[in-house]
Amino acid sequence: MRILLVEDDPKISAVVRQALQEETYAVDCVGDGPAAEEMAFVNDYDAIVLDLMLPGKDGLDVCRSLRELGEAAPVLILTARDALRDRVAGLDAGADDYLVKPFHIEELLARVRALMRRQSDTKTRILEIADMEVDTVLHEVRRGGVPIDLTTTEYAIVEYMGRRAGQIISRSELIEHVWDENYDGLSNIVDVYIRRLRSKLDEGHDVRLFETVRGAGYRLRDPNAVAALA
Fold first, then answer.
1. Domain residue limits at 156
2. Are both 193 and 215 inside the same structural domain?
């Protein structure tokens, strides 16, 4: 899951970025309003964490512009403005949530997770696909009740695909949402990671979850959902 962090204070930006990355998110950082708009127009983000007091263009104006141009990513506003009128103005500008500085990083992470759930068909912390469970808070994956040891990137792929189980996801979409703007990997990096996940999660099981759709991408099959429709 990829997040745009818009914060002009380098210390706050560094702390928030590290915390988000430790939660397996890919994070792009900018420090002014115009750069935020440019990044949001170029990339497809799963969430935007937006400070209000920005150089170049105020965060409220940035939020309004993004919404007017059809940007649907949930927006969490960070600001020192704690008056009721400021919170109302932020929400009316199109923000989804509002967090007043100073804040505890644990609360920020919890609010980001809540925004991600709103975007997903699954509203609980546990994603269930066949006999696989993905704990989106602890970042743990189990298959048949057995914990699976995954790297940060492997987990990020599983969560992204798990939130879209049954949907075909292209290689470019996975790169867009799992890696940040500094990605400079091999063209076949997604294929490499899918092979690793098949080895870790599918081998030894009768039901194979990771499916290649020729010419289109990959799909995380949910046999339970298919059976329910039959």
1. 126-229
2. yes
Q: pLDDT per residue over 81-128, tens digit each? A: 777 888 888 888 889 998 998 899 999 999 998 888 877 666 678 899
Q: 140: which residues sit within 8 A by CB, 6+ positions away? A: 134, 147
Q: How far apart are CA 90 and CA 43, in angstroms?
A: 23
Distance of CA 79 to the CA centre of its chain: 22
d(CA 111, CA 127): 18
Last-in-domain residue among 119, 149, 175: 119
User: What separation in angstroms does the CA of 28 have from each of 42, 91, 195?
Assistant: 12, 23, 27
**Which pLDDT does position 225 carry in this prediction?**
60
CA distance 53 to 58: 6
- Domain match, 36 and 106 both: yes
Q: Please report, for the domain that includes residue 45, its CATH number.
A: 3.40.50.2300
Number of domains in the chain: 2
At 18-52, the pLDDT tens digits run 999 998 899 999 999 999 999 998 888 999 999 98
